Amino acid sequence: MHISSLLSDEHVGSLVKTRGWVYRWRESGPLVFIIVRDSTNIIQAIVERGKLSDDDFETAKKLTIESSIELEGNLVKEKKAPTGYEIHVSKLTAFNIAEKFPITKDKSDEFLLDIRHLWLRSREMTATLKIRETIFETSREYFKEKGYHEVHTPMFVGAAVEGGSTLFEVPYFGEKAYLTQSSQFYLEAFIYSLEKVYTISPSFRAEKSRTRRHLTEFSHLEAESAWMSNQEMMTFEEEMIVRIASDLLDKRKDELSILKRDPEKLKNIETPFYRYTYEKIIDLGRSKGMDLPDIVDLGEKEEREITEGFDKPLFVYNFPTSLKPFYHRPDPDDPAHVLCHDMLAPEGYGEIIGGGERIWNKDELLRRISENGLNTDDYGWYIDLRRFGSVPHSGFGLGMDRVLTWIAGLEHIKNAVPFPRTIRRLRP
Ligand code: ATP
Ligand code: MG
User: Fold this and answer.
1) Residue 18 Cα distances to 26, 40, 63, 272, angstroms
2) pLDDT at residue 162 greater than cutoff 80
């Protein structure tokens, strides 16, 4: 039985069987104390000479941290045990006596990254992975409820979506291909049949800057919807984030507490989120003493300072047209601004979502491609989408690893991913 199902009065006094890995081990005279862990929890087991075969007792004495075992015994309620119950062992089998485990207390972050394949078993990582799973699960549920279809897009692509400076080039049978930076353009192609679509897939960006929020491969949740405006999309996104936070409070209380994340921080995440125009956010930054020109790309540092005192996310919307890629739709009443938004997480975490309305008029798109010094020939099929029944539409891209980093209160995005990829790390 899994350990979590043993931790109840129901089984007290009966013979139980469980298996897992040695988490702690200590010997004291005729007794061996073992704390066993499995995917669900930990439980203490007591092995006493004479209460099981001599062979089994010798096995208990040989156990090391991370050895894999199966044990059988009587379940007892015990206040002093770490999870309130313990097993008095009558039978013990070892599958593997582990070699000396390299992870001990006070190892450096770099070392823990070098042996990530072993660090995955830590309680912190296990809790993080479960929270991560719930974020993915809730997002999918939310999209389904709202009538979105899940679709899949290629990872090998022939052209850039974001800038060329973060493109990964790969040889492709004598041609050049790239790893996708975003699935947005492909998602736009689906809306003419499915109307509302989303995908969760990796995006790749050759990020050279070292910040606590950039990976070179990250989990990107992207959506596009026909007929939706910028402001409507913002409402959709904030509801989704609130839903993620409240599901975590329901389902992942224990894991949040293992990570020492204060649940109050998640309770604060309620609609409506703050909405500031780009100009208002510049004013806000200046009121905090930041030295900001009128038009400036807000990076990690600026967003950290701006969001530090906030208790829930905020939107910055309608950025100056010059700051954003060509596909953003200029406001018809104010073409110096585009109808777009970023969602910034509070407590200094910064951008977690970027989205907005896409240009849906063909001539306007052609003009913006040229104004950006790009070649319309490179965007043939994307322009085509504006030639056959084009409709107003909006979309967004959300970094799942960034949402997890913030919601779980992690220090660095690397801690949110089982096998992180950065400029300096490709292994394990
Ligand atoms: P930044 O300014 O932080 O580099 P961006 O403006 O390049 O972000 P977008 O192109 O809008 O980001 O991508 C959409 C979302 O994808 C971002 O809001 C973020 O959550 C996530 N994202 C972008 N780049 C990365 C990255 N290198 N690592 C992890 N997540 C990322
Ligand atoms: Mg970027």
Assistant:
1) 19, 12, 16, 47
2) no
pLDDT tens digits, one per residue of 204-260? 999 998 899 999 999 999 999 999 999 999 999 999 999 999 999 999 999 999 999
Residue whose CA is closest, atom 5 of ligand 1?
A: 354
Tally of domains within the chain: 2
Q: What is the CATH number of the domain that holds 37?
A: 2.40.50.140
Q: Taking the model in full, what pTM does it have?
A: 0.97
- Tell how far the Cα of 421 is from the centroid of ligand 1, in angstroms: 15
Distance 245 CA to ligand 1 centre (A): 21
122 and 83 inside one domain: no
Is the beta carbon of 312 within 6 A of some atom in ligand 1? no
Gap between the Cα atoms of 24 and 64, Å rounded: 8
> Residue 90: CA atoms inside 13 Å, Cβ hemisphere, count?
8
| Residue range(s) defining the domain that contains residue 89 | 3-96
204 and 346 in a common domain:
yes
Q: How far is the CA of 280 from the centre of ligand 2 (A)?
A: 22
315 found inside a domain: yes
